[in-house]
Amino acid sequence: MKSWDLGALDLKPRLPEIISSSDDARAVVLDLAAGESLSDHEVHERAWIVVLGGDVEVSSAGSEPARGGAGLLVELAPSERHEVVALQAARLLLLLTPWPGPGHPGAMTITQKLYARRHAAKMAGAGRDAASGGPDGPER
Questions:
Q1: Which of 32, 100, 103, 128 could form a disulfide with 107 if both were Cys (CB 3.0 to 4.6 A apart)?
Q2: Both 63 and 31 in a single domain?
Q3: Rounded to whole angstroms, how far apart are CA atoms 123 and 117?
Q4: Which pLDDT tens digits describe the chain residue by residue (140 residues)?
């Protein structure tokens, strides 16, 4: 058995601490200062956000925002886009399962990671070309 006193952890704002990780799940504790947010994003895993202290608002497209303090539990489906805003300084426990989820870079083979990096670099280059009027960019 393992245990943690999550309130006693000495965390720096926005620097998450992985407290446990296995093939089944990952547990992460994170502090957010008042007004800070985890901007619109998604994770590959099913996610549970538990508010340990402070107040937050969690929003997701197609759902009413969830607002609350210590004891609020929010469940998000894999790849569900969401945003977390600290209404006051907050400490959160994030549970992700399975770890890593399908499509997560940690679940990819070396060949899949290489392809993903090359594809991302190609797309970033295409975006720069379009913005600068390069090969496929708009004519001026």
A1: 100
A2: yes
A3: 10
A4: 999 999 999 998 768 999 998 888 989 999 999 999 888 777 888 899 999 999 999 999 888 999 999 999 999 988 888 899 999 999 999 999 876 666 666 655 667 667 777 877 887 776 655 555 555 445 54
Residue of 80, 76, 77 lying closest to 92 (CA atoms)? 76
Has residue 102 been placed in a domain? Answer: no
- Is residue 20 located within the same domain as residue 80? yes
- Name the 3-class secondary structure at 102: coil
pTM: 0.71
Distances from the Cα of 102 to the Cαs of 75, 105, 114, in angstroms?
18, 9, 17
On whether residue 47 sits in a domain, the answer given is: yes
- CA–CA separation, 51 and 49 (whole Å): 6
**28 and 16 in contact (C-beta within 8 Å)?**
yes
Distance separating alpha carbons of residues 75 and 93, to the nearest angstrom: 12
User: Is the sign of the CA dihedral 61, 77, 47, 63 positive or negative?
Assistant: positive
